[in-house]
Amino acid sequence: MNKIIAKEYFSEKVVRLEVEAPLIAKSRKAGHFVIVRVGKKGERVPYTIADSDPKKGTITLVIQRVGKSSEKVCSLEVGDYITDMVGPLGKATHIENFGTVVCAGGGVGVAPMLPIIEAMKKAGNRVISVLAARTKELVILEEQVAKYSDEVIIMTDDGSYGEMGLITQGIEKIIQREKVDLCVTIGPAVMMKFVALLTKRYEVPTLASLNTIMVDGTGMCGACRVTVGGKTKFVCIDGPEFDAHQVDFDEMLMRLKAYN
Questions:
Q1: In the chain, which residues fall in CATH 3.40.50.80?
Q2: According to the model, what pLDDT value does residue 221 have?
Q3: What is the pLDDT of residues 76-132, one digit of tens each?
């Protein structure tokens, strides 16, 4: 069992939890995720690790309340325990000095983007972060992102903060003014689809961290399968990051509606 050490509300439905997990904290890398379960009959749900502190032996999860299982996790208080946690899972982000890297995070996707931004900056890249949300209140981790970014661009749907518009508009402005060597995107599937369509047009290599339905996290159940470059891949063991230009997002979006 994993104890909740700290809890913070970013908004009414987005919660930051710091959780005791010393072995995971020691071995996790940018891009890794965990699967958690609350209650002996609870659903197993994947969450990307937003941060870790090996000295304290903790990891940080940023979770959005969207259904019964996430509600269970978000309702935990300091001193409570997560019943089960397994990880780190998935393949870590490939980090090297690419040159100029655009990191595009939408909504709570900014949380798993944070360790990638940090790792890319420490590898010597020029990092431009584009954060998108519906309103100012839903923009998260701006200060932490700015710490490891050469530039931060905020896009809000209603124009209440930063620039009014979609994340793709912010990315396109960057591409039009300077050479971008890599784009990394994390957020809602439909957002990542349109980021991929944009960057493909400009021939900018792009990685997308996919958020498919996941059950066992070991590649056995097949629930997280996606088509990448015409081949079946499993997000839990082959991903979660893939060449965004090769992902069949329409199929993925259809599969995400399976439990609607």
A1: 100-256
A2: 83
A3: 899 999 999 988 988 989 999 999 999 999 988 898 899 999 999 999 999 999 999
Regions of the chain short of the pLDDT cut 70: 259-260
**Taking every pair of C-alpha atoms in the chain, what is the biggest distance, in angstroms?**
53
Q: How many residues does the chain have?
A: 260
What is the edge-to-edge ordering of all strands in the sheet holding 58-64?
81-82, 2-9, 14-20, 58-64, 45-53, 33-37, 84-89
CATH topology of domain 100-256: Rossmann fold (3.40.50)
Q: Are strands 33-37 and 84-89 parallel, antiparallel or unpaired?
A: antiparallel
What are the Cα distances from residue 150, in Å, to 77, 81, 95, 128, 199? 36, 38, 17, 6, 20
- Contacts for 85 with CB less than 8 Å, ≥ 6 apart: 2, 19, 21, 24, 34, 35, 36, 37
Domain 2-89, CATH: 2.40.30.10
Output the six-digit token pair for 235.
Answer: 């997000």
Alpha helix locations (H) across the chain? 22-27, 68-74, 110-122, 142-147, 167-177, 189-201, 235-238, 249-256
Tokens 């931004």 -> residue:
117
Residues of the chain with CATH 2.40.30.10: 2-89
Q: What is the pLDDT of residue 22?
A: 94
Tokens coding 96: 């090297």
What is the pLDDT, as a whole number, of residue 259? 67
